[in-house]
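FAQ

Q: What does a record look like?
A: Structure on top, sequence underneath. For example:
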């Protein structure tokens, strides 16, 4: 009998809190998108794909090494810069 009472007590311990996640969902705050950051991320992704595909092209045409170096000069720093915009200070 004592076990049953403890079981009931543990099940009703949070009765003072009437909120339930399925019954009363918290409203989702939609953040406004920053368009120029989305465009910069897209350019960075395109540069990563081009950079990985340019490697075989550069091996066949050494004159295109400048394009390869240019892409690799800025595509990863771009991602680090963009991620810094979303860093939250605690």
């Amino acid at each position: 009998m004592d076990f049953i009472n403890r079981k009931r007590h543990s099940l009703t311990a949070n009765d003072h809190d009437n909120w339930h996640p399925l019954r009363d969902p918290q409203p989702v705050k939609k953040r406004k998108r920053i368009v120029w950051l989305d465009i910069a991320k897209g350019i960075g992704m395109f540069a990563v794909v081009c950079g990985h595909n340019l490697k075989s092209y550069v091996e066949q045409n050494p004159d295109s090494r400048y394009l390869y170096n240019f892409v690799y000069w800025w595509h990863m720093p771009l991602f680090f810069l963009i991620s810094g915009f979303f860093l939250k200070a605690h």
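Q: Is there anything notable about this one?
A: The chain has a mean pLDDT of 76.
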